[in-house]
Each structure stands twice: as C-alpha cells, then as structure tokens.
Write a structure and sequence with these properties.
Length: about 250
C-alpha cells in the first residue's frame, strides 16, 4: 500500500544572504503575500494564496547553498516514514514536533508532515494569461532515474505517465493536489539529487517576460518549456502545460 498522501508542499530553502531577494521574487511571481515569520529563529514563512490552501513555504538556511525540499502531508508521518524506508529511503531525523525527514534513494531530501490542507489554489491571472506553480521536478543522474521514479511511484501510488522526452518521467497526480511530481534524468553525476519548480502557463512568452521584469534570467528555450534562473541563481521552468489540468495542449 502506498502512503496516504493528502497534500504536497514545496519548501524554498534559501541561503541567508539571498533570503530577501528570493522571497520577494517568488512572492511577486505567484502573487502570494508572505506570512509572518515563525520558528525558533524566525526562519520559516509561508507564501499565502488569496484562495485555497498554501503549498509553498520558505526556510532560511543556516549554511550552504539554496535548494528545494518536498513535504508530503499524511495522517501519520512515522508510519509513512517506515513505509518509505522499506522502499529504499533513509530516515535522517525524527522530530519531537511530529515530522520526519528522509532522503530518497537518489539522495533528495523530503519530509512527512501532518499539517491539514485540502483546497488547491486557482491559477493567478496576469492580464490575458494565467499561471500557477504546479510541479516539482527531481533532477537525478541518469543512472538513478528509473530507480528514483520507481521509488516515488511506489511511495505515492502515482503511476508513471508517458512523455515525448525520454529523459522525463512524470507521475500522474491525483485530482486536487497542488504539486505534480516528475523525475528528470540529467547528464551529469550529481548526488544527491536536486529539484526545481515548474510553472504551467497559458502564454509562456508573456509569462517569461513578466518573470524577466521581476529579475529572472532566461537560460534556455525549448519547444514546450523555458528554463530560467531566479535572482538567487536557482533554476526553474515555465511550461506550456495547462494550469488547471497540468497537461500539455493537444
């Protein structure tokens, strides 16, 4: 049986020196204001959508470069962590506050948490087009990609979906969850695996221009997606996928 996942959240883990620029950018990109900071050292904040439940959060790192991690919301984090460990994950921390931190077989950090959430936010409108952060893509070295995709599929119960690109393995997201998952085989030997966010947009060119005005830089333009870097240097993509369905047109 897969884990009973009822919500997904992405954590933007930002280096202290980049915090102001990173938070300002992602708040503007999404249209979500920033919550009051919380935690023992005021290290956590939430990007709060105007409708629906939050699924993007920010953490100020004490050291090291910026990164992403994933929170999977389940009724019982410790039971889910035991299931994940049986599938090949490594438990790295069990918090007295109830959450559990793990590393996937490819080394990607994720957590099981129990915070309630249920309503997926709608896409934001920007003039004549809409956009929405709706996917976390795991960037995994090619040798690990099939195993990593198999791990996440077995853990979540989400079946792999065929893709026009052999390097991409999307997983079928259940209706109502805010973030899709996808595994991408990359042409380097990175370990641990990293991740980036993807946006779905009804007008990729207009959305890209909006991001550039906010401080992003275009790195590459492909048939169905554009690769950018945010002001902190972290990569992400704008895609042609529909913000409602998550699917490509046609």
């Amino acid at each position: 049986m897969p884990a009973d996942i009822f919500w997904t959240s992405a954590f933007l883990d930002v280096a202290a020196s980049d915090l102001a620029a990173g938070v300002r950018f992602w708040s503007a990109v999404t249209g979500y204001p920033v919550s009051p900071w919380r935690g023992e050292d005021d290290e956590f904040a939430t990007l709060v959508p105007p409708a629906g439940d939050d699924f993007l959060r920010v953490q100020r790192l004490r050291s090291g470069p910026g990164r992403l991690h994933l929170d999977l919301h389940v009724p019982d984090p410790r039971d889910a962590a035991r299931l994940a460990a049986g599938l090949g994950a490594t438990i790295t921390h069990e918090s007295p506050h109830g959450y559990v931190v793990l590393a996937s077989p490819g080394g990607f950090t994720f957590c099981f948490v129990s915070h309630p959430a249920a309503v997926r936010p709608p896409a934001a409108r920007w003039g004549r087009h809409t956009s929405l952060v709706d996917q976390l893509c795991l960037d995994v070295r090619t040798a690990d990609a099939d195993g990593e995709a198999r791990f996440w599929s077995e853990l979540t119960g989400w079946a792999p979906v065929s893709s026009s690109l052999a390097t991409l393995i999307p997983l079928a997201r259940p209706a109502g969850l805010p973030l899709r998952l996808m595994v991408q085989a990359v042409g380097d030997d990175r370990f641990p695996a990293t991740a980036h966010l993807d946006l779905a947009a009804t007008d990729r060119a207009a959305e890209t221009e909006r991001h550039q005005v906010l401080g992003a830089a275009v790195r590459d333009v492909a048939d169905r997606f554009t690769v950018l870097r945010d002001p902190t240097g972290q990569p992400y993509c704008i895609t042609d996928r529909d913000p409602v369905t998550g699917r490509l047109p046609g």
